[in-house]
Design a protein that fits this description.
Strands 2-1-8-9-7-6-3-4-5 form a nine-stranded mixed beta sheet, with helices on both faces. The chain has one domain: Vaccinia Virus protein VP39 (Rossmann fold, 3-Layer(aba) Sandwich), CATH 3.40.50.150. α1 crosses α2 and α2 packs parallel to α3. It has eight helices and nine strands. It is globular and about 55 Å long. β3, α3 and β4 form a beta-alpha-beta unit. It is an alpha/beta fold and 248 residues long. The longest helix is centred in the first third of the chain and has 15 residues. It binds S-adenosylmethionine. The site of S-adenosylmethionine (SAM) has 19 residues, from α3.
Length: 248
Amino acid sequence: MVKANFRIDLPESDIDVSCEVVNPFGDRQQMEHLLSTFCQLYAQRPFDNTGGVLFSSAFAYFCFLQRIKPNLVIESGIWRGFSTWLIDSMLPDATLYCLDPVLMMPLEFEATYRPSRAFYSTQDFSCIRFSFADATKTCVIFDDHQNVVPRLEQAANYGIQHIILDDNQYEPTYHESITHLIKQAHPVLPYLFQSVAEYYLFPPLVPPVPEGCPLAPLWEEVPECLQALKLNLAAELVYSWVTYLRLS
Ligand SMILES: C[S@@+](CC[C@H](N)C(=O)[O-])C[C@H]1O[C@@H](n2cnc3c(N)ncnc32)[C@H](O)[C@@H]1O
């Protein structure tokens, strides 16, 4: 049984996977509170990010991490470290692993966020021999543009249940996402979803709803606390299909 926030059409198969539709974002008061807390945090961001996570994706991470409360987070794909800043700020006691080949590239960023308490590696997630005291309190965030099926297998092999996927997108790109597989009614889906307990795509914050997105926006117009940040909303509210998935 998969709990999901929209009906997932799985292709016919011998494997019987049923789906219960639930809405983890349905508590209006809670969402307003999360947004206002997040806006206060975002106002303290160390730099304006480029080429990575911006407001709407960061808010999705924030909501999911609030829910999971992991004591260990692995980030695969850190770029300038904006998401690292978010995790470091909201989970000061969590152990942090940051993986990205960018660390060995001769790039000169105007600013980065690399906290000394984080463990850094240029190795791929699949190659690090993680062993966790309690893998059930571990969360991995994949923002590394790699194909999703091997990533899920690798996480499962480490015993990790909590997974946040960025760029679980509908439009074609150079990695394969679960949304792509759903769009194709791919025969791997029943095998994949038989090991999934929860699957929540974070909704767009405000209209318009991007092509292929099955969810209504959380707000009809830009909420006041967000307007007060005076952001470049066209960029900051770009939808990146952030998804939480819990393996069973
Ligand atoms: C969209 S950026 C990450 C954005 C970042 N999370 C942020 O907060 O802005 C994608 C990153 O994935 C990295 N990447 C590519 N292949 C990777 C791999 N196999 N493992 C980890 N990171 C990888 C790239 O170097 C790049 O820094």
